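User: My instructor asked us to take a sequence, write out its structure as tokens, and then describe one feature of it. I'm not sure where to start. Here is the sequence I was given:
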Amino acid sequence: MRRDHSIPRGELHRLVHQSVVLEGNSLGDPTERELHVWTPPGWTAAERAPLLVDLAGYWGSGLGHTNWKPGGENVPERLDRLAQQGMARAVVAFPDCFTKLYGNQYLNSAGSGRYGDYVCDEIVPFVEQRFACGGDGRRGVFGKSSGGYGAAWHGMNRSDIWSAIAVNSGDMGFDVLFIPTLYDDLERMRKHDFSIERYITHLESQPKIKDKDRMTLMDLAMGAFYDPDPTQFRNMRLPLDPHTGELIPQRWGNWMRHDPVVMFDTLGENLHKLKLLYMDCGNHDQFRIHYGMRRFAKKLAAAGIAHTYEEYEDDHSDVDYRMDVFLPLLAKALNE
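Assistant: Let's start with the prediction itself. The structure tokens for your sequence are:
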């Protein structure tokens, strides 16, 4: 059931992609993945439309963004409406990057796999060849939360691929984002002797995982992305002493090297190459991400990098409506 059946429908193509770069990933995650691609109403390959890639937030996947959404719009339905309202033409890809860590940060890591390369060097050329879209100067990537982190990471690390990015509530400002929650995580792990393996094994044996435990699983997974240890359960380790709460300098330093605010100091110049750099965040994000976004925007301004940063009256949850703002901006920039 769609919200409005009168709107012309684009087509959602359901494909299967076999990865090479994910072969041998340390989590044993599948290399054959479903891939969904939306083309606008009346699309033909002769259009040579730009390509947008959607990076889903943590606990999500591109497949979730194309699934039916009761009482609202999934992303393809939103794109249908935006197309009717005049959004410039674009092809949109929804890769599945879900892992045994329950999500992805879309970078290359020994703890998860080469997902940065997977998106840029496999998904992009696969979609471009199949749909005659994209190409140099005509590729954009967007995402929210962990997907926003991915967009920021790709903008700085793979400016050879991307020409426009949109970062919605993207993970950054790691000290204010993670440190408070890590102490809450320790309390949840206490009954399991602070063992990541025992804690997760217990959760996975239960009929449901509570929301607070879902947050802890996400925090613990960051260790595998930012500071992996192949000798540990799913490559995860804590960046602090569980008994004293003291941050371990080397461990925490490895996390901080992956903070986009810190990463900017060595890779930020690559953002000059973008046609569009759009960022936004709720002004009372419950994970305190707006502080990191403000820091990043401050560095962009100091470096003279053209960008847009907007804050809106909301928190971190259920903010897909912001796509109505940045998807048309991305499509317009890539069509010029």
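For the description part of your assignment, you could build on this observation: The longest strand covers residues 11-18. Try explaining in your own words what that tells you about the chain.
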